[in-house]
Amino acid sequence: MATLIIDGQEVHAEEGQTILEVARENGIEIPTLCSHPLLEPYGACRLCTVEVIRRGRSKLQTSCTHPAWDGLEVKTRSPAVIEARKTILELMLSRCPNVPVIQDLAREYGVTEPPFPAEDPDEKCILCGLCVRTCHELVKADVLHFAESGVERKVGPPFMEKTRQCIGCGACTIMCPTGAIEILLEDAEVYKEKPLGPTSAIWVPSMQAVPRVPVIDMDACIRFRQNDRTNGEIVDACGACQMLCEADAVNFEQEDEIIELDVGAIVVATGFEMWDPVQLSQYSYGRSPNIITGMEFERLSNAGGITGGEILTAEGKKPERVAIIHCVGSRDHNAHPYCSRICCMYSLKQAHLVRDKTDAEVYEFYMDMRTFGKAYEEFYERIQEEDVTFVRGRGAEVDVLPDGKLRVKGEDADLGRMVHADVDMVVLSTAIEAPHDADQVASLFGLSRSEDGFFAEAHPKLRPVETNTEGVFLAGTAQGPKDVPDTVGHAGAAASMTLALLDKGEVTISPQVAVVDEKLCSACKTCISLCPYTAISFIEEDNVARVNEALCKGCGTCVAACPAGAITARHFTDRQILAQIEGLFRLPAEETEAEAAVEVSVAEAEGVRS
Amino acid sequence: MTDNGKLKLGLYWAASCGGCEIAIVELREKILDLDAAADILFWPCAMDFKYKDVEAMPDGHMDVVLFNGAIRTSENEEMAHLLRKKSKVLVAFGSCAHEGCIPGLANLYTRQAVFERAYLETPSTENPDGILPQTSYQVPEGEIEIPYFYNTVKTLGQVEDVDYFVPGCPPQAPQIWAVVEAILGGNLPPKGSVVGANEKTVCDECKYNREEKHVKKFYRPHEIIPEDRCLFDQGIICAGPATRGGCGALCTNVGMPCRGCYGPAPNVVDQGAALLSAVASVVDADTEDEAAHIVGEIVDPVGTFYRFGLPASLLHRTKLE
Amino acid sequence: MNGTDFEPRIVGFLCNWCTYSAADTAGVSRLEQPPNVDIIRVMCTGRVDPVFVLKAFREGADGVIVSGCHPPGDCHYGEGNYKTFRRMPLLEALLQQYGIEEERFHWGWISGAEAPKWAQLVRDFTEQVRELGPLNWKRELESKED
Questions:
Q1: Which one, of B29, B66, B86, B233, lies nearest residue B156 by Cα?
Q2: Contact B161 A563 (CB under 8 A)
Q3: Is the pLDDT reported for residue A243 higher than 90?
Q4: Which residues in C lie closer than 8 A to residue B305 (C-beta atoms)?
Q5: Residue from C98, C140, C141, C146 whose CB has the most chain B CBs within 10 Å, to mutate
Q6: What are chain B's domains?
């Protein structure tokens, strides 16, 4: 434990601490640009210079590198220090006259004009080395280095050439204090549900996520990516999140846990996904950051979002005119023929939010207003009174104009002519659809899918939560588009049917199952590979095939295949079906006597078992 | 029974190859037991009997008639009716009588086609005047007649009321003896039953190890040398799964696929259809094109699936124009 | 018995979940179709044993239809229709060898949502079979026998 005096204040320091760290711990402000708690100190920018008095001698030292020794006296704002910092900032400003953070710092120290002309007025790099150190110490990719020396000194990859060593993690961009590094998205993979602004590899998708616990995206996380890249050699790069977490809650060793449960009922509540409007190129989604989907608008408007809930364009300004286009990808034979049910209401809500949070004019392009629920129509009327302009006609096209404005074109069916609106922001009320892996889920649970791609309920009117598989129920949008009240009702129904099933304690299964006559089964095993439910299996001890009646769905495939006729389909037996066929042709409508006689003699002549 | 308590036995061959007669001889030393137990009143193959001997018998005189061979001509049919009249128990003996067997494959053709082939087209036939068999012919002594050759081969059961069916081409000797013993012992199952065979199919007697089937390609027996495991698993069309057992799986046990001579399993209506269904079901194809391609390589489906049972099948024969 | 007064008798083996449902809907929707098809319902086309088709022709059908859910993926039981499309081509080859014209046997897929397609099939197939004339298998066999 060391004791030192900083600006006349007695402070205590732990072993290994620097003056900067101790000063900050005690609330003493020292400006820095090149220092970062996760990196080793470097002393490049010199801004943290302080006066250090030891054994009567005073020296100007960088507080970020100087150890906090016992008995030191430190002055952080002495005239010498101020003068030194002013000079440093003059030089920095001369190098980078147009960097806001330097301009702000310089102004603090009374420097408003750079004393020297800049070699390159657009220069942003102050050679602080944060990017180099980040790339070396944290990311361990070692892409960025200092090159050359003296006035030629610069930062970059070897030979200033693009290199595959760069993993595109963006850490350098985040660390750079002046914004000198840009990430270029070349063939970058864009998340389907992309956030509207930068996010880190450890994140909580939204403030309403349940549980609201951050999770590491292993595809983006530097540590996992580097460990993958180095062919088994564990580099353990970065780890910043673990270092910073005070609860010590970050565990990189956590693995997926596979839990096996024996259950009697399953509720499939796998929800929906947003359809990607990039598939209808006339809406220009992706060509302007101000064309967003309804979901993205929700994120924007959310108080926990990147704008704190303000409706702002990508340029950070409030829009003056906003267009909302209904039915993008819904009610459209080029995308989804069905109606996504929820968009009319949320589009009205979003119009209201725009009007409420900005003064923008709002244009809603719609085909029909589907405001069917309790108080929904009344809500629509209210929005109509809020000065939202409703254009009855499907928004047909969105063009990105050269100045960045967006031109929405459509037919106004009431006026009977084409109209257009030039706006700052377009919200596309995009279709909702079944998740992309719905077919795998369907396979897993033996579910059918309706034409719209969602899971099929057992009966469209009378059995909305059951499926054709006993014991598997559907809840929510997995079964089809629906809003919150309907989802709650639907899910409640699923829960109650599940409870009823579990409460009963037994399951009624269909009697239409296959049965193997073990006296006839010769163990040829033709049937074994045929059942999609693995309901028929070979029993070694008894040397026969046997059907598990609880698994058998009664399709009869094994019955038709069995060459020994050993398997019967209860209630759809061969005898029944053959009898049906015979019956069809024994209805003698206009049969003559002779024909009847032939029939009888033929039947007699057969003598073959049937 | 004769007055000496022996069984009165008759044997007849219709359209047959004679193999069923050989099968009786295959009883070997047991033939002496047969002789001790039965008096043979009619066996044209072995001894000189005349039809009029049979006609002279009282109705139902013979206890058992073992009738082998298919019904190819009017003579075969007449004898079927005659022997029915003169016997108490009429047994369709062997595959020909049971289901048509090899002569039954003529049902792929017509009488005319058969005659043309036999009497005109075969390379070693000399028939410059193109003479085909006629049913009647004028000779100085009068008109002579020969039996009429049907278009369609029939089974015994399709022309007469049959009591029992003994399957096999030919029935195996131990099975024949079992039938004789059953008759002697008065130990017979309900009329119309198949006797001298098992309830399960040939697979039950086959020595090979069987697995789940996924066939990517079918092979004819001469196309590959099979491994020592289920032939069907390897893509060779073996009728074993669709054929009644009791023969001891003679063919498969020497590495040749079963060809179905014991006829269908007890509950099966049409043996060929059952075999076809099994064969196609295990094709390892998940697209229509692939499936069509794999099954498209099967040569002569009727001959393959109905080798022994064409007359007994649901459709009996190819379409008659 | 060719000519305008021949009414083809067609047997259709339809799967419960798809084609049978389409046929039902076609009926309820009053889609126009001739009455020549007699429907036998099975739970899945995978249940259709080739023996059914042979039996139908034997008993007097002039044409036979087997129809179910579209592969891949639509089959209510997952893969029943896979076995169907493995069996049907071989059955077709067998029927042709028997001398039954390929135009008398139709197998394919019609989903529950395709009622108009069912009605169209019934119209087209009935005409197709009508052109071929009666098959009358059993009776022809007997009448041409000696």
A1: B66
A2: no
A3: no
A4: 94
A5: C98
A6: 7-102+153-184 (3.40.50.700), 109-150 (no CATH), 202-305 (no CATH)
SS3 for chain C is CCCCCCCCCEEEEEECCCHHHHHHHHHHCCCCCCCCEEEEEECCHHHCCHHHHHHHHHHCCCEEEEEECCCCCCCCCCCHHHHHHHHHHHHHHHHHHHCCCHHHEEEEECCCCCHHHHHHHHHHHHHHHHHHCCCCHHHHHHHCCC
Work out the pLDDT band at A554, boundaries 50, 70, 90.
very high
- Is the Cβ pair A525, B158 closer than 8 Å? no
Q: State both tokens at A87.
A: 């000079």
Check if the beta carbon of residue B234 is closer than 8 Å to that of residue B226: yes
Cβ–Cβ of C146/B150 closer than 8 Å? yes
- Whole-complex ipTM: 0.94
Chains with ≥3 Cβ pairs under 8 A against C? A, B
**Chains with 3 or more CB pairs closer than 8 angstroms to B?**
A, C
Shortest alpha-carbon distance between residue C96 and chain B (Å): 9
Per-residue pLDDT of chain B (321 residues), as tens digits, is: 556 788 899 999 999 999 999 999 999 998 999 989 999 999 999 889 899 999 999 999 999 999 999 999 999 999 999 999 999 999 999 999 999 999 999 999 999 999 999 999 999 999 999 999 999 999 999 999 999 999 999 999 999 999 999 999 999 988 888 888 888 888 889 999 999 899 999 999 999 999 999 999 999 999 999 999 999 999 999 999 999 999 999 999 999 999 999 999 998 999 999 999 999 999 999 899 999 999 999 999 999 999 999 999 999 999 887
Res A361: pLDDT: 96
* pTM value > 0.90: no
Asked whether the bond before A464 is cis by omega within 30 degrees of 0, the reply is: no
pLDDT digits (tens, 9 = 90+) for A439-465: 889 878 878 788 789 998 887 888 999
Q: Which residue has the tokens 């047997």?
A: C11
Q: What is the DSSP string of A303-352?
A: TTSTTTT----TTSS--SEEEEEEEESSS-TTS--S--SSHHHHHHHHHH
Phi-psi region of B23 (alpha: psi -120 to 50; beta: other; left: phi over 0): alpha
Mark C80-93 as b/e (b = at least 16 C-beta within 10 Å): bbbbbbbbbbbbbb
Contact C146 B315 (CB under 8 A): no
Read off the DSSP letter of residue A190: P
CA distance B123 to chain C (A): 26
- Rounded CA separation B133/B316 (Å): 25
- Which chain A residue has its CA at the smallest distance from B202's CA? A522
CA distance B181 to chain A (A): 24
Give the tens place of pLDDT for each residue, A462-475.
Answer: 899 998 777 899 99
Confidence of residue A188 (pLDDT cuts 50, 70, 90): very low
Query: In this structure, which amino acid lies at residue A289?
Result: P
Mutate to test the interface with A, among C21, C24, C48, C77 (most CBs of A within 10 A): C77
Task: List domains and CATH numbers for chain A.
Answer: 2-108 (3.10.20.740), 264-507 (3.50.50.60), 514-572 (3.30.70.20)
Domains of chain C: residue spans and CATH: 10-140 (3.40.50)
Size of interface A-C (CB pairs under 8 A): 91
Nearest CA in chain B to A538: B212
Q: Do C77 and A532 touch (CB under 8 A)?
A: yes
pLDDT of A607: 46
Chain B residues inside the 8 Å CB shell of A556: none
Query: Letter for the amino acid at A479?
Result: Q
Which member of A451, A557, A574 has the closest CB to residue C46? A557
Residues in B closer than 8 angstroms to C98, CB to CB, are 302, 315, 318-319
